[in-house]
Amino acid sequence: MDIIVLTKRVPVTQEEELKVAPDGRSVDLSRVPFRMNDWDNYAVEEAVRLCEKQGGVITGVSIGDMESDEVLRRAIAMGAKDGCLIESQTVVHDPFTRALLLKGFIEKENIPFNMIFGGVQAEDDQFGVTCGILAAMLGLPFASMVIGIDDIQKDTVILRRELEGGIQERISIKTPCVLSIQSGINEPRYVSIMGIRKASKVERRYFKAEKYLDGGAGSLIDVTRWFYPPKKEGAVILQGELDDACKQLIGILKEKGVLQ
Predict the structure, then answer these.
(1) pLDDT of 82-119, one tens digit each?
(2) How many domains does the chain contain in total?
(3) Beta strands in 18-114 (DSSP E)
(4) I want to staple 188 with a disulfide (CB 3.0 to 4.6 A). Which of 41, 178, 206, 244 is the partner?
């Protein structure tokens, strides 16, 4: 069972105050820490667990500058055999371009696989469509929001998908295929600093992104402006007893047109 796992290096912005760069078309990330995209952690872990049971090879693949090598080292420390970096000095926002790069890389470099795993979405851009577009480009079956892989039978995978309202769907899908992995499918293993240092001794392979863009095609998305959302008015605190507060609330709702 050979599996390609797509990994992405993303900024950790949850507790950081982001600042728009002076040019207005980018965000200053110079002091923001980075890590492997959280959903990709689950994808790597699931691939490792499958290969531990079934046998096979895991290849981590990432798109980005040389700093993205750190997510490949983490994937190797988790259990991937090697890592491949599609090196691009510009940020690839467009999921179509990302999928095109991955398709060209997999086909031209003849990377063997039975399945391709990726996280459901990336923490930074949250498009959530790269895996689906890649599957369409490769002409392969695709399943999203995968929350469990129950069985593998020859060329068929039995899996569960998460749907609206907490409902799960159990389906079978033919391999080779592309799956986007949902968080919660497993508990990603702890990776120590020593483990990552050891993984750094495993040779990674580096490829230029331009090699896989047909006709030098660029991104289909152009970032025109970053800006802060306008500040809204503060909340209104209703004073007085409960009956008085309710009357005030009804009056406000009528004024806003919510109640007649």
Answers:
(1) 999 999 888 777 899 999 999 999 999 999 999 999 99
(2) 1
(3) 19-20, 27-28, 34-36, 58-64, 82-87
(4) 41
pLDDT of 215 > 70? The answer is no
Candidates 2, 15, 56, 5; CA nearest to 188 is 5
Q: What string of DSSP letters covers 184-210? A: TSS-PPP--HHHHHHHTTSPPEEEEGG
Sheet strands side by side (includes 115-119): 168-174, 156-162, 142-153, 177-181, 115-119, 3-7, 58-64, 82-87, 205-208
What integer is the mean pLDDT of 194-199?
A: 87
> Where in the sequence is the domain holding 176, given as residue range(s)?
3-216
Within-domain flag for 111: yes
Structural contact between residues 149 and 175, judged by C-beta atoms closer than 8 angstroms: no
Q: Which of 73, 87, 84 is nearest to 34 (CA)?
A: 73
Residue 239, token pair as written in the block: 């004073």
In a domain, 244, yes or no: no
Candidates 210, 211, 205, 213; CA nearest to 85 is: 205
Tell me the pLDDT tens digit for each residue of 59-87. Answer: 999 999 999 999 999 999 999 999 999 99
Q: Is the peptide bond before 33 cis (omega within 30 degrees of 0)?
A: no
Question: Is residue 27 one of the residues assigned to a domain?
Answer: yes
